[in-house]
Each structure stands twice: as C-alpha cells, then as structure tokens.
Amino acid sequence: MRIAIANGTFQAAYLFDIFKKAGHRVILINSSRDDANYLLRTKHAKVFVGNPWSRHVLEDAGVASADLFISLCDEDTDNFASCLVAKKVFGVRRVISLVKNPQSVEIFRKLGIDSAISSTYLVGQSIMNESSVESIIKTLSLENDKIVLLEATILPRQKIAHKKIMDISFPKFAAIAAIYRNYSVIIPNGQVELYPKDKLLIVCGKEDEEKVLAYVRDEA
Amino acid sequence: MKNKTVILGCGRLGASLASYAANKGLNVIVVDSSKDSFDRLEEPFSGFTVTGDATDTNLLEKEAYIQTAQEVIVTTGNDNVNLYLAHLCSLVYKVPRIIVRFDDPKYEILIKDLEGVSAVYPFQLSYESIVKLGEAEE
Fold first, then answer.
1. Distance of CA B99 to the CA centre of its chain
2. Which of A88, A105, A155, B96 has the most C-beta neighbours closer than 10 Å?
3. Of B53, B114, B79, which is closest to residue A53 (Cα–Cα)?
4. Lowest mean pLDDT segment, chosen from A36-50, A113-127, B17-31
5. How far apart are CA B33 and CA B31, in angstroms?
6. A107 touches chain B (CB under 8 A)
7. Is B80 on the interface with A (CB under 8 A)?
8. What pLDDT was estimated at residue A148?
9. How deeply is B34 buried, as exposed, middle or buried, from its count of CB atoms within 10 A (0-12, 13-18, 19+)?
10. The complex's ipTM?
11. Between A and B, how many CB-CB pairs are < 8 A?
12. Pairing between strand B71-74 and B97-101?
C-alpha cells in the first residue's frame, strides 16, 4: 500500500517507521523545512516540502497514487483542507485526519473525512472503556463505530452461566466469536457450555450493543 | 429573528458587508476572534457582534444562531478556515445561501458540489479588471 503522511514531526517519524516495517511505501510531505530536515536526518526519507493543502505540492509528491492519506497538521481546518484536496483532486480513497478539537471528530465524519482522530477524544473513549471494565465489559469499535467487539466476563449469577449455547436464545443480531477460558481460546458451537469466568468476545452492530449487554448481564 | 445574515470574519470586507446589510435593515450577526476588528464597523451599527472562534460549533449555534440563518458570508483571512466553514454551513447547518471568499482561485473545485454555496475570488476579480483596463488602453 502507498501511504502519504502530511506534516507532523515525531508523529510522522513514528508512523513512517510502523508503515515501513509493515512493507508499505510512504510519501512524506511537510510544510516546515525544519521538520522536513528532521525527518530527512532521522529517517533518511525524502520529504516533499510545501503546504499539504496545496495542489502542486501534492502533485509533486505523487499523492494521486496513494491509497491512504494521513494529515497531521496543527490546525484542524488545515487538516480538513489537506484531506479534501487529497480526496477530491487526487482521488485518494481513504483520508484520515488528526484533529485537536474533540468536537471535530463527529463533524469531520459528517463532512466526508473517512476518519478523524483526536487524542483527547481517544483518552475520553478509553476512560469510558476503563469504567465499563468495572461492569466487566470492554468494547472496541470498528469501521467508524459501526461494528463493536464486546468483551464480557460471565459471572456466576448471570442467567447464561452453566448453560449450553444451543439452550440459550442468544440474540440473532450478535455472535459469540470466541470464548477465552483457562488461557485457551474456544471457537464455540452450540454444544459448548458457558462457565463463570469465561470471557466472551461478542461481535454485533453498534446499534445493538446495549441490547446485547442487557442480555449478557441479565441475572437469574 | 428573521432574515438573519451571519458574517464570519470582520476584516475590511466582512465589516463593510456587515455595515451595508445592517443599514439595509437586515438582522446581522458578525463573528470575529478579535474584538478590535469590530472597530471597522460603521457607527452606529445596528447588528450584533460575537467575539470568538468561528470554527467553534458551540459558538456558531448558541451565539451566532447559525441554524436559523438565511445567509452566511464567510470572509475570514484564512482560505482553509473559509473552506471548512463553507462545508460546515452547507452540509451540517443547511444554510440556504452561503457566500465564501477565497484568495486562491484553485479552491473552486473543492466547493463546487456544495448546496447553496457561491464563491468570490478577489484575486480573479482584480486580475480580470486589470486585464480589461489594459485592453481598453489598446
């Protein structure tokens, strides 16, 4: 895959390493000559210098051939402009933007940016996930929050404990993808019995998350 | 408040348009991050001024009442901010009429699919006027 990274200093260097290691081709673009020199010095990578929202800079960098465009500018509006140029002018299929203002996460998605990432938003999300650990349930969102992976530990008092999967009417809109028990993974079929302390990995649509949680938590 | 015009950016152009619209009897709300920029408004100014960041949705909704605006004029000094605001006003707030100013005429392709948006390019206008003056001389 070809990945273009616009702006960013340490973040760009870090992502550059990850993507290179995974065998991707990385295009670096940076509006600051100092940052470009830093990337050149530390990563020995070619950097196209110029504003990533400028059409001729992205053209020189060959962004039209990129499969993914990641914008790491300091200003949210600069990230928006860069992503829009990459998408509308150069036809990059997937664009990801860093955003400073956590409010922008939702708005950027509404404005057609495939993914918007805010560190504050992520901190908030992970704190919320932490707090749901107390209720023994962790969630992971996939595909822009459309699919969720729930991790639920079975408690002895729950209705589904000590029952075979075939005997409980597990909701049709969700599936138990795996059970983690005694350090081993079980891919379940109807014959498998659920025990307390089993960790269930459940896949479902975001809209059904609450219903699934309610079902699992239901106590006898 | 009916027939409301929201002007984002109170530079020379924004301030002149705000004064013009207010004198015409329209309800005008003008937003700028710098309080001093409102000195450019003609006295007396019958509209409202809001000091703050025009990209802040809280401010747009609760202080500039963007959701019920008839018209938004986007004239901040930064093309990327203007581009973002044009998209936001069109796609999220569905403002019926949006006029946006860009220094760089290349931004045209980035807004051409947006509902209700028309753009003005001072560079293009100056260029055309100067070429026309040159032709008149010949």
1. 6
2. A105
3. B79
4. A113-127
5. 7
6. yes
7. yes
8. 86
9. exposed
10. 0.90
11. 45
12. parallel
pLDDT bucket at A172, cuts 50 / 70 / 90: confident
Angle between helices A10-21 and A33-43 (to 10 degrees): 40
What pLDDT does A134 receive?
Answer: 45
Task: Please judge whether A77 and B84 are an interchain contact, meaning their C-beta atoms are less than 8 angstroms apart.
Answer: yes
Higher pLDDT, A144 or B104: B104
Task: Show which of residues 71-90 on chain A sit within 8 Å of chain B, judged by CB atoms.
Answer: 75-78, 80-81, 84-85, 88-89
Chain B contact present for A48, CB below 8 A: no
B105 lies within 8 A of chain A by CB: no
A151, pLDDT greater than 70? yes
Interface-testing mutation among B8, B53, B55, with chain A (most A C-beta atoms within 10 A): B55
Whether the per-residue pLDDT at A171 is higher than 50: the answer is: yes
The verdict on a CB contact (< 8 Å) between A110 and B91 is yes
Q: Which domains does chain B have, with CATH numbers?
A: 4-137 (3.40.50.720)
Of A76, A84, A89, the CB nearest to B55: A76
Instruction: Give tens-digit pLDDT for A15-60.
Output: 999 999 999 999 999 999 999 999 999 999 899 999 999 999 999 9
Q: What is the pTM of this model?
A: 0.74
User: What pLDDT score was predicted for residue A133?
Assistant: 47
A55 lies within 8 A of chain B by CB: yes
Mean pLDDT within B46-53: 96
In this structure, chain A runs to a length of 220
Enumerate residues 6+ apart whose C-beta is below 8 A from A125.
Answer: none
- Give the angle A69-A75-A81 at the CA atoms, nearest 5°: 50
Strand partners of residue A202: A150, A176
Q: What single-letter DSSP state applies at residue B39?
A: G
Peptide bond into A196 cis (omega under 30): no
Helix or strand (DSSP H, E) at A21: helix A10-21
Collect all residues of chain A within an 8 Å Cβ-Cβ radius of residue B87: 80, 84, 111
Distance from CA of B23 to the nearest CA of A (A): 33
Cα angle: B114, vertex B118, B121; to 5 degrees: 125
